[in-house]
Design goal:
This protein is of the alpha/beta class. Helices cover 35% and strands 20% of the residues. It has two domains: 163 residues, Rossmann fold (3-Layer(aba) Sandwich), CATH 3.40.50.300; 78 residues, 2-Layer Sandwich (GMP Synthetase, Chain A, domain 3). It has a three-stranded parallel sheet. Strands 6-7-8 form a three-stranded mixed sheet.
């Protein structure tokens, strides 16, 4: 998250110790700090990162190095917690960080940090959450939670949610189920294209986990519009879950006909 949004306070609340320097001065944490904890028999490696500011506001080489290390930490993490200042609202930089996590196919928790929100009624929290979801429309699968890092309220929920997201990231779907699903899905809403080649999905398989990685073998990948890929992702999530994590989707073209054999000379 941004500088001085409460990242170190959150980590301190999670470990219940003042191992990290907590200050009102933006930029107190200059490097990624790793701490291992156990919660409900699950082991977690918490990484507290330096604040990430817009490029135009990064002046010193040390700060630039710290930002690079922070972004690298999101690449290595199974789940990133994007801490948001619920009082100041969502900034463009918050959206940029979420987009970076999306592009690296990470898990994502949006943590709205403000103490008095937890004491407000459910209607108020629902209204704020709806606003956040509209801002982060490009990651509709992201988890969201209200916390108070300073007062150590609701922070344990982050660990519980992170464990659930990690389980989703490790989920593997059998190829048979995927292909029965893709037949049903394409019959319901067949792909269309302005090109001459009619797009056709030959079969679907999941090749990896953490993050979940799906490959669609098709007759011609260029025939598929990006909106249809979004439709397929939405249907995969509706059928199989993968809550809280990005998934990787790849299309590979394959000719319908086998290549002709060369004549012997």
């Amino acid at each position: 998250g941004r500088p001085n949004v409460g990242k170190s306070s959150l980590v301190n609340a999670l470990i219940d110790k003042e191992k990290l320097i907590v200050s009102d001065i933006p930029g107190t944490t200059r490097d990624a700090t790793s701490i291992e904890i156990t919660y409900n028999d699950d082991k977690f490696l918490l990484i507290d990162t330096a604040g990430i500011r817009r490029r135009g506001k990064i002046r010193k080489k040390l700060e630039k190095f710290s930002v690079v290390r922070s972004l690298q930490a999101t690449e290595q993490a199974d789940v990133s917690v994007l801490l948001l200042n619920a009082e100041e609202g969502i900034t463009k930089q918050d959206l940029h960080v979420a987009d970076y996590i999306l592009k690296n196919h990470g898990g994502l928790i949006l943590a709205l940090n403000k103490s008095d929100l937890l004491d407000k009624g459910e209607e108020v929290r629902d209204r704020i959450l709806a606003t956040v979801k509209r801002k982060f429309v490009f990651v509709p699968w992201a988890a969201a939670v209200f916390i108070s890092a300073k007062n150590k309220k609701n922070v344990e929920n982050i660990l519980q949610i992170a464990a659930e997201i990690k389980a989703e990231r490790n989920k593997r779907i059998e190829t048979g189920k995927l292909n029965r699903f893709i037949i049903k899905t394409t019959l319901k809403h067949p792909p269309t294209t302005p090109s001459r080649i009619l797009p056709k999905i030959l079969y679907l398989t999941q090749v990896d986990v953490n993050p979940p990685h799906f490959i669609f073998f098709v007759n011609n990948e260029e025939s598929f519009h990006f909106s249809y890929l979004r439709y397929l992702e939405n249907q995969i999530r509706k059928e199989f879950g993968f809550w809280g994590t990005a998934i990787r989707m790849e299309m590979r073209g394959r000719e319908d006909r086998k290549p002709r054999r060369k004549k012997k000379s």
